[in-house]
Amino acid sequence: MAEGGAVRRVETGGAAGFWAPGSRILWRYRENGGAHVHIARPVTVVRDDAELLAVWLAPGTECVKPVLADGTPVHLEPLQTRYTKPRTVQRDRWFGTGVLKLARPGEPWSVWLFWEPGWQFKNWYVNLEAPLSRWAGGVDSEDHFLDISVHPDRSWHWRDEDEFAQARRDGLMDDQQVEKVRAAGRAAVEVIRAWRPPFSEGWQHWRPDPSWGVPSLPEDWDRTPAHLSS
Fold it and tell me: Is the dihedral of CA 227, 98, 151, 101 positive or negative?
């Protein structure tokens, strides 16, 4: 483990290799309609192979998130102007319980698991996004606004449909992109209905290694990302 909780530079994490469990990498998102990274989260690798990348976002992790230029949290801005007002980024902490993130190579979504305090499982969250691009320091993607919540009883519902529609109106996605995202959502719903991996694999019973600690956010968290194809 890297000293002081720093993100470990693992060159074998590129396209030709995999990260070992316990490695620390960055899980990042590029801004919509731009080239800069606006979300960066240090995470610990749980599993990484040809079938799945699983990472743990620990409670209290220092992250980078977007805010409006005046510091207003994005979610507090009215939807009609949320995506058109100037933005910047700021450092903050991931409060609450941690998050387990699962992504299969090439899939246009990742699946996140949330718990209540005391490890009471809350829900799965399907985050529709560009397939992850791997680079030496982590993975990059671009969020596609539309999401799905999946509950322990296997029921599900769409989330953030209003944000998805607003992003389209504001020109952050063209008609072709919108249809690709909707198609990805339909494909994810088929996986949910059939209860295929990762939902069927019992990840809700997983627990992090207590020796891992909390990774720190590197100063160069925004270093040159891998190419993204959305």
Answer: positive
